[in-house]
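Posting this for the archive.
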Amino acid sequence: MPLSRLNHEQHLAATAPSGHNLIIASAGTGKTSTIVARIASLIHQGIEPSRILLLTFTNKAAAEMIERISLFFGKAITSQIEAGTFHAVSYRLLKKMGYKIVLKQPKDLKILLKTIVERRRFDHIDSSVKPYGAAYLYDIFSLYQNSTVTQSFSEWLEANDSEHGVYFDMYEDIFEEFHELKREFGYVDFNDLLILMREALNKDETLIFSEILIDEYQDTNTLQGSLIDAFKSKSLFCVGDYDQSIYAFNGANIDIIGSFGTHYKDANVFTLNKNYRSSHKILSLANRVIEHNPRLYDKRLEVTREGNFESPKLLIYEELFYQYQAISSLIRVSANAHQDIAVIFRNNSSADGIEATLREQGIACKRKGGVSFFDSYEVKAMLDLISVVVNPKDMMAFIHVFEYAKGVGSALSKELFDALFKLGEGNIFQGFFHPKEVDELFKKRPKNHQLGLFDEINDLGSVSRFYNLGFEETFLSNPILKHPKLTLEGAKFLYHFYKFMKHTSRIKQPQSLVNHVLSSEVFSAIAEMLSIKRSTKKDGGIDESVKQEARARIFRKGHLLKDLASGYASNERFLNALTLGSNEMSEGEGVNLLSIHASKGLEFKEVYVIDLMDGRFPNRKLMQKGGSLEEERRLFYVATTRAKDLLYLSYAKYDKIKKIPYVHSPFLVEAGLVN
């Protein structure tokens, strides 16, 4: 059983009495085994599995833990445990409670917010400070939601960016309209899920778990902390390590783990001190650096691995690109399999260099922490087309698709959606194929100095301008074509979309739906636009060979998405799975190229931490924008403790392209590798 495999410290923690228990689990000390054993102990005590809640940083981590518990109790029992990320669990619980919500990615809601911001006029305000753009405004509002539960947005901004004070009232007004629009369509983002869940728990006290287990507790933000309190569980089992708190940029609040003992009066603190991952030489280096940070809880790591291991090596290069080439050469002759090797970087520009040189030497690699498969424009477009099929009321998916239509911006896209929505009485599919008669579909709007978008509007456009484009008669008769701002190119794209939607009601299998997307004219037009953009030369000409290669890559990603769809029985489940878990999926084989944040929780036989130059790591620019040297030091600790056997630290003295000289990172001094 799981308990029999634990060391003394792990066993004490896993069998702790019910209450508020904090387990300080440093890198490689077996925190997952301890959590698994704790759940096994709860089940042995007679706790109903359905009364156990496991909150993890990724859904993958939750699935792996439940899988390990299933080896002892069977899936019939472990499937009853509520497990996943804060967001995934909240989504499922809210659905069970009858909430009608449509989960949308931030990229979609940024477009929706943009349609609102574009209708505001800021030029009447006399200020040298420019107002936030829609995308940044969304991000900073999200950070606000994660960072406080007591302040208004204006109060929080006043404390963090007071120079924007002249715009505070307008920002508040923008978000009031934004929230109202989201409520109208049932849209929620990831923060909304937690806020709705918290509100639901405050109204309904019947949803009580016997114990809540929380992994990566050091990365909990203030919003998540308030949700934990809202569950009102009398027993918490929180596992984390303050030395690995690296998400302050996303609102993570290290004070939550630091104040555990004062927040919960009956708190018990356990420490796991035995490291099973790294060699003693690697761990010694990591500890020498991290000890420069304040110690929130006492801990003394002990190495359990025996044997002769190489000391961490410092690699110094005269030039930046030479560094990447040399490391690629070292990897090429390494005795370790490529999947057991990781190159860890602080900045995406570092990853670009190492990826280029690895591929130049014919070494396969996969990258996580930069632009992932699911972040590529073509995959986003495919998922948006699927979203409109699954939910014909999905305004944001519609607007996102029409970003690729020439002469159609986000504001016009929303107007087209609104019109189809009216014509279809709440369903754009019906609006296309069974439109109702609507009076004043595109009516003139009064002049508004603040909104400024509809000051002037032309007479309704004549449909006759589209007669020679080969459109079907049923499409030509649709009132949507009377929009005065609809251009010929916009109408062609709208017709492609019309034909795509025409037969989708018959498609029930995700694989078939992805195939329908790939064979559609609307996606072909999107792929053409993307491939042209990616093959445009500096002089404005098109490199045809690059264009064809770019188009081929786009459709290869489509076929990969089709393969992913084979594991799902319904279109809705497929779409929801990708929306909730796309950041955890990856493609490809080979050397692991990882941002430090993406490397969290992983381990490799051979690790390279690159570009250890002052300014790049620690990243001084991010430190000036609210980061800290302590957080950068924690990032260094996380990066180095991914290594089991071999650790290489490298830096370059000069960048010949930017003509920038570098000095070594102060962390190398703290590690005792340079004077």
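The first strand starts at residue 20 and ends at 25. Residues 383 and 419 are 23 Å apart (CA to CA).
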